[in-house]
Amino acid sequence: MILRRRLTKSDFPRIRQIWKKNWGDEFLVIRGVVYYPDTLDGFIAFDGRECVGEITFAFTEGNCEIVTLDSVREGQGLGTKLIEAVVEEARKQNCTRVYLITTNDNLNALGFYQKRGFELVKINRGAVDEARTLKPSIPLVGMNGIPLRDEIELELRLKV
Amino acid sequence: MSGLMSALRRLTEGDLSRLRRFWIEHWGGEEMITRGNVYRPEQLEGFVIEDGDRIAWIGLLTFFIKDGECEVTSLDSLREGQGIGTMLIDKAIEEARARDCRRLFLITTNDNLNALGFYQKRGFEIVTIYRGAVNESRKRKPGIPLVGMNAIPLRDEIELEMRLKV
Fold first, then answer.
1. Which has fewest Cβ within 10 Å: A28, A30, A128, B1?
2. Model confidence band, residue B5 (pLDDT cutoffs 50, 70, 90)
Protein backbone atom coordinates (compact mmCIF):
# COMPACT_ATOMS: atom_id res chain seq x y z
CA MET A 1 0.00 0.00 0.00
CA ILE A 2 1.53 3.25 -1.15
CA LEU A 3 0.61 6.44 0.65
CA ARG A 4 1.05 9.85 -0.80
CA ARG A 5 1.15 13.15 1.03
CA ARG A 6 2.12 16.76 0.51
CA LEU A 7 5.76 17.66 0.99
CA THR A 8 6.55 19.34 4.29
CA LYS A 9 9.58 21.15 5.58
CA SER A 10 10.74 18.01 7.35
CA ASP A 11 11.03 16.21 3.98
CA PHE A 12 13.56 18.62 2.49
CA PRO A 13 16.66 16.74 3.72
CA ARG A 14 15.29 13.58 2.15
CA ILE A 15 14.45 15.32 -1.11
CA ARG A 16 17.94 16.79 -1.22
CA GLN A 17 19.33 13.26 -0.82
CA ILE A 18 17.18 11.92 -3.65
CA TRP A 19 18.19 14.78 -5.90
CA LYS A 20 21.85 14.28 -5.04
CA LYS A 21 21.55 10.63 -5.98
CA ASN A 22 19.43 10.99 -9.11
CA TRP A 23 20.31 14.45 -10.38
CA GLY A 24 23.93 14.78 -9.24
CA ASP A 25 23.45 17.62 -6.76
CA GLU A 26 21.13 19.11 -4.15
CA PHE A 27 19.96 21.70 -6.65
CA LEU A 28 18.77 21.78 -10.25
CA VAL A 29 19.33 24.25 -13.05
CA ILE A 30 16.49 24.64 -15.52
CA ARG A 31 16.46 27.36 -18.13
CA GLY A 32 19.22 29.11 -16.25
CA VAL A 33 17.23 29.15 -13.00
CA VAL A 34 18.52 27.37 -9.91
CA TYR A 35 15.97 25.31 -7.95
CA TYR A 36 16.32 24.09 -4.37
CA PRO A 37 13.80 21.72 -2.77
CA ASP A 38 13.05 24.29 -0.05
CA THR A 39 11.32 26.65 -2.47
CA LEU A 40 9.08 24.02 -4.05
CA ASP A 41 5.74 22.41 -3.49
CA GLY A 42 5.45 18.66 -3.96
CA PHE A 43 4.19 15.23 -3.08
CA ILE A 44 6.07 12.34 -1.58
CA ALA A 45 5.10 8.68 -1.66
CA PHE A 46 5.83 6.01 0.94
CA ASP A 47 5.52 2.27 1.04
CA GLY A 48 5.52 1.66 4.78
CA ARG A 49 8.53 3.64 5.99
CA GLU A 50 10.30 3.54 2.65
CA CYS A 51 10.18 6.64 0.45
CA VAL A 52 9.38 5.34 -3.05
CA GLY A 53 8.83 8.52 -5.02
CA GLU A 54 8.62 12.28 -5.13
CA ILE A 55 7.38 14.99 -7.42
CA THR A 56 8.15 18.68 -7.01
CA PHE A 57 6.50 21.61 -8.72
CA ALA A 58 6.10 25.37 -8.68
CA PHE A 59 3.37 27.76 -9.75
CA THR A 60 4.30 30.71 -11.92
CA GLU A 61 1.86 33.10 -13.60
CA GLY A 62 -0.92 30.66 -14.32
CA ASN A 63 1.50 27.86 -15.12
CA CYS A 64 2.52 24.86 -13.13
CA GLU A 65 6.05 23.63 -13.69
CA ILE A 66 7.03 20.12 -12.72
CA VAL A 67 10.61 20.37 -11.50
CA THR A 68 11.44 16.76 -10.63
CA LEU A 69 9.77 13.38 -10.72
CA ASP A 70 11.51 10.41 -9.17
CA SER A 71 10.14 6.94 -8.68
CA VAL A 72 12.16 4.03 -7.37
CA ARG A 73 9.66 1.55 -8.81
CA GLU A 74 9.33 1.67 -12.54
CA GLY A 75 6.28 0.30 -14.31
CA GLN A 76 3.96 0.26 -11.31
CA GLY A 77 2.05 3.41 -12.07
CA LEU A 78 3.56 5.50 -9.28
CA GLY A 79 4.88 8.17 -11.67
CA THR A 80 1.46 8.40 -13.28
CA LYS A 81 -0.23 8.86 -9.90
CA LEU A 82 2.21 11.59 -8.89
CA ILE A 83 1.65 13.41 -12.19
CA GLU A 84 -2.12 13.15 -11.70
CA ALA A 85 -1.84 14.64 -8.25
CA VAL A 86 0.02 17.64 -9.64
CA VAL A 87 -2.42 18.08 -12.52
CA GLU A 88 -5.31 18.06 -10.06
CA GLU A 89 -3.54 20.68 -7.96
CA ALA A 90 -2.85 22.81 -11.04
CA ARG A 91 -6.54 22.66 -11.99
CA LYS A 92 -7.51 23.83 -8.52
CA GLN A 93 -5.18 26.77 -8.92
CA ASN A 94 -6.74 27.58 -12.32
CA CYS A 95 -3.50 26.99 -14.19
CA THR A 96 -3.77 26.96 -17.97
CA ARG A 97 -1.02 24.40 -18.35
CA VAL A 98 1.38 22.04 -16.65
CA TYR A 99 4.83 21.99 -18.17
CA LEU A 100 8.28 20.63 -17.59
CA ILE A 101 11.75 20.64 -19.02
CA THR A 102 13.57 17.44 -19.86
CA THR A 103 16.80 16.88 -21.74
CA ASN A 104 17.59 15.62 -25.23
CA ASP A 105 19.03 12.33 -23.97
CA ASN A 106 16.05 11.40 -21.81
CA LEU A 107 14.04 9.20 -24.17
CA ASN A 108 12.21 7.64 -21.22
CA ALA A 109 10.81 11.01 -20.18
CA LEU A 110 9.90 11.88 -23.77
CA GLY A 111 7.94 8.63 -23.97
CA PHE A 112 6.45 8.79 -20.49
CA TYR A 113 5.05 12.30 -20.71
CA GLN A 114 3.89 12.07 -24.32
CA LYS A 115 2.00 8.88 -23.53
CA ARG A 116 0.24 10.79 -20.76
CA GLY A 117 -1.05 13.63 -22.90
CA PHE A 118 1.90 16.02 -22.76
CA GLU A 119 3.02 17.58 -26.05
CA LEU A 120 6.43 18.69 -27.20
CA VAL A 121 6.61 22.49 -27.24
CA LYS A 122 10.14 23.45 -28.14
CA ILE A 123 13.79 22.70 -27.89
CA ASN A 124 16.29 25.08 -26.35
CA ARG A 125 19.49 24.08 -28.08
CA GLY A 126 22.59 24.19 -25.95
CA ALA A 127 20.64 25.09 -22.79
CA VAL A 128 22.23 22.22 -20.87
CA ASP A 129 25.67 23.41 -21.89
CA GLU A 130 24.72 26.73 -20.28
CA ALA A 131 23.38 25.01 -17.16
CA ARG A 132 26.63 23.11 -16.86
CA THR A 133 28.50 26.34 -16.15
CA LEU A 134 26.35 26.70 -12.97
CA LYS A 135 26.31 22.99 -12.19
CA PRO A 136 29.50 21.28 -13.32
CA SER A 137 28.23 17.89 -12.12
CA ILE A 138 25.99 17.66 -15.21
CA PRO A 139 27.70 15.02 -17.35
CA LEU A 140 28.70 15.57 -20.97
CA VAL A 141 27.14 12.31 -22.05
CA GLY A 142 23.70 11.53 -20.67
CA MET A 143 21.41 8.53 -20.83
CA ASN A 144 21.47 6.09 -23.73
CA GLY A 145 25.00 7.19 -24.68
CA ILE A 146 23.63 10.48 -26.02
CA PRO A 147 25.52 13.78 -25.68
CA LEU A 148 23.61 15.87 -23.11
CA ARG A 149 23.11 19.27 -24.63
CA ASP A 150 19.55 20.60 -25.04
CA GLU A 151 16.47 21.28 -22.96
CA ILE A 152 13.12 20.13 -24.32
CA GLU A 153 9.85 21.58 -23.05
CA LEU A 154 6.69 19.50 -22.79
CA GLU A 155 3.28 20.75 -21.74
CA LEU A 156 -0.19 19.60 -20.89
CA ARG A 157 -2.89 22.16 -21.69
CA LEU A 158 -5.64 22.35 -19.09
CA LYS A 159 -9.18 23.29 -19.92
CA VAL A 160 -10.28 26.32 -17.95
CA MET B 1 30.44 -7.92 -41.49
CA SER B 2 32.56 -8.00 -44.65
CA GLY B 3 29.97 -10.18 -46.32
CA LEU B 4 27.39 -7.51 -45.66
CA MET B 5 29.63 -4.74 -46.89
CA SER B 6 29.89 -6.39 -50.25
CA ALA B 7 26.12 -6.46 -50.41
CA LEU B 8 25.75 -2.70 -49.91
CA ARG B 9 25.06 -1.07 -53.23
CA ARG B 10 23.62 2.06 -54.76
CA LEU B 11 19.99 2.03 -55.87
CA THR B 12 19.49 2.05 -59.62
CA GLU B 13 16.55 2.79 -61.88
CA GLY B 14 15.87 -0.91 -62.06
CA ASP B 15 15.04 -0.87 -58.34
CA LEU B 16 12.19 1.63 -58.63
CA SER B 17 9.22 -0.67 -58.58
CA ARG B 18 10.76 -2.65 -55.78
CA LEU B 19 11.45 0.55 -53.84
CA ARG B 20 7.79 1.54 -54.20
CA ARG B 21 6.65 -1.81 -52.87
CA PHE B 22 9.11 -1.58 -49.99
CA TRP B 23 7.82 1.85 -48.97
CA ILE B 24 4.21 0.73 -49.24
CA GLU B 25 4.98 -2.21 -47.01
CA HIS B 26 7.04 -0.31 -44.43
CA TRP B 27 5.77 3.27 -44.60
CA GLY B 28 2.16 2.82 -45.67
CA GLY B 29 2.43 4.53 -49.06
CA GLU B 30 4.66 5.21 -52.01
CA GLU B 31 5.40 8.78 -51.11
CA MET B 32 7.10 10.35 -48.13
CA ILE B 33 6.10 13.74 -46.78
CA THR B 34 8.47 15.82 -44.70
CA ARG B 35 7.84 19.46 -43.85
CA GLY B 36 5.09 19.52 -46.48
CA ASN B 37 7.44 18.36 -49.24
CA VAL B 38 6.35 15.24 -51.07
CA TYR B 39 9.07 12.81 -52.10
CA ARG B 40 8.52 10.03 -54.56
CA PRO B 41 10.93 7.14 -55.11
CA GLU B 42 11.86 8.30 -58.63
CA GLN B 43 13.24 11.60 -57.25
CA LEU B 44 15.56 9.96 -54.77
CA GLU B 45 18.92 8.31 -54.59
CA GLY B 46 19.73 5.60 -52.13
CA PHE B 47 21.65 2.62 -50.87
CA VAL B 48 20.41 -0.84 -50.20
CA ILE B 49 21.85 -3.74 -48.27
CA GLU B 50 20.93 -7.14 -49.59
CA ASP B 51 21.19 -10.29 -47.70
CA GLY B 52 23.77 -12.93 -48.64
CA ASP B 53 21.77 -14.43 -51.48
CA ARG B 54 21.10 -10.93 -52.89
CA ILE B 55 17.37 -11.49 -52.91
CA ALA B 56 16.01 -9.93 -49.75
CA TRP B 57 16.48 -6.25 -48.93
CA ILE B 58 17.45 -6.04 -45.29
CA GLY B 59 18.35 -2.37 -45.22
CA LEU B 60 17.42 0.69 -47.24
CA LEU B 61 18.33 4.35 -47.07
CA THR B 62 17.08 7.00 -49.47
CA PHE B 63 18.29 10.58 -49.71
CA PHE B 64 17.81 13.80 -51.63
CA ILE B 65 20.56 16.33 -52.26
CA LYS B 66 19.61 19.94 -52.94
CA ASP B 67 21.32 23.30 -52.36
CA GLY B 68 24.26 21.80 -50.52
CA GLU B 69 22.09 19.85 -48.09
CA CYS B 70 21.50 16.13 -47.97
CA GLU B 71 18.19 14.98 -46.55
CA VAL B 72 17.80 11.38 -45.48
CA THR B 73 14.24 10.67 -46.58
CA SER B 74 13.98 7.13 -45.26
CA LEU B 75 16.02 4.59 -43.37
CA ASP B 76 14.94 1.03 -42.71
CA SER B 77 16.73 -1.85 -41.13
CA LEU B 78 14.88 -5.12 -41.09
CA ARG B 79 17.41 -6.64 -38.72
CA GLU B 80 17.89 -4.57 -35.61
CA GLY B 81 21.13 -4.54 -33.67
CA GLN B 82 23.36 -5.79 -36.49
CA GLY B 83 24.80 -2.46 -37.53
CA ILE B 84 22.78 -2.22 -40.73
CA GLY B 85 21.38 1.23 -39.92
CA THR B 86 24.81 2.48 -38.88
CA MET B 87 26.38 1.17 -42.07
CA LEU B 88 23.78 2.94 -44.21
CA ILE B 89 24.08 6.21 -42.30
CA ASP B 90 27.88 6.09 -42.53
CA LYS B 91 27.53 5.60 -46.26
CA ALA B 92 25.16 8.57 -46.51
CA ILE B 93 27.59 10.76 -44.54
CA GLU B 94 30.41 9.72 -46.87
CA GLU B 95 28.25 10.51 -49.90
CA ALA B 96 27.15 13.91 -48.54
CA ARG B 97 30.80 14.81 -47.84
CA ALA B 98 31.92 13.67 -51.28
CA ARG B 99 29.29 15.92 -52.81
CA ASP B 100 30.26 18.95 -50.71
CA CYS B 101 27.10 19.12 -48.60
CA ARG B 102 27.22 21.46 -45.61
CA ARG B 103 24.94 19.23 -43.64
CA LEU B 104 23.02 16.01 -43.52
CA PHE B 105 19.55 16.23 -42.00
CA LEU B 106 16.37 14.25 -41.58
CA ILE B 107 12.87 14.52 -40.23
CA THR B 108 11.54 12.05 -37.72
CA THR B 109 8.34 12.15 -35.68
CA ASN B 110 7.60 12.85 -32.03
CA ASP B 111 6.69 9.22 -31.29
CA ASN B 112 9.87 7.74 -32.72
CA LEU B 113 12.06 7.47 -29.64
CA ASN B 114 14.22 4.84 -31.34
CA ALA B 115 15.15 7.27 -34.08
CA LEU B 116 15.83 10.07 -31.58
CA GLY B 117 18.19 7.73 -29.77
CA PHE B 118 19.78 6.21 -32.86
CA TYR B 119 20.65 9.48 -34.60
CA GLN B 120 21.71 11.38 -31.47
CA LYS B 121 24.06 8.56 -30.53
CA ARG B 122 25.63 8.90 -33.96
CA GLY B 123 26.38 12.60 -33.81
CA PHE B 124 23.13 14.14 -35.04
CA GLU B 125 21.63 17.02 -33.06
CA ILE B 126 18.00 17.97 -32.64
CA VAL B 127 17.40 21.25 -34.47
CA THR B 128 13.69 22.06 -34.34
CA ILE B 129 10.31 20.68 -33.46
CA TYR B 130 7.63 21.42 -36.06
CA ARG B 131 4.51 21.18 -33.95
CA GLY B 132 1.50 19.70 -35.69
CA ALA B 133 3.39 19.07 -38.94
CA VAL B 134 2.31 15.42 -39.04
CA ASN B 135 -1.31 16.49 -38.72
CA GLU B 136 -0.75 18.52 -41.89
CA SER B 137 0.90 15.59 -43.68
CA ARG B 138 -1.99 13.38 -42.69
CA LYS B 139 -4.33 15.48 -44.83
CA ARG B 140 -2.41 14.37 -47.90
CA LYS B 141 -1.56 10.89 -46.66
CA PRO B 142 -4.50 9.64 -44.58
CA GLY B 143 -2.66 6.36 -43.96
CA ILE B 144 -0.55 8.07 -41.29
CA PRO B 145 -1.98 6.76 -38.02
CA LEU B 146 -3.19 9.03 -35.20
CA VAL B 147 -1.26 7.07 -32.62
CA GLY B 148 2.31 6.15 -33.46
CA MET B 149 5.00 4.05 -31.86
CA ASN B 150 5.15 3.58 -28.09
CA ALA B 151 1.42 4.48 -27.89
CA ILE B 152 2.31 8.15 -28.41
CA PRO B 153 -0.01 10.46 -30.38
CA LEU B 154 1.69 11.09 -33.74
CA ARG B 155 1.67 14.84 -34.25
CA ASP B 156 5.00 16.63 -34.72
CA GLU B 157 8.02 16.49 -36.96
CA ILE B 158 11.46 16.74 -35.42
CA GLU B 159 14.48 17.79 -37.45
CA LEU B 160 17.91 16.36 -36.68
CA GLU B 161 21.12 17.36 -38.39
CA MET B 162 24.79 16.64 -38.66
CA ARG B 163 26.99 19.54 -39.68
CA LEU B 164 29.69 18.55 -42.11
CA LYS B 165 33.01 20.32 -42.29
CA VAL B 166 33.63 21.78 -45.70
1. B1
2. very low
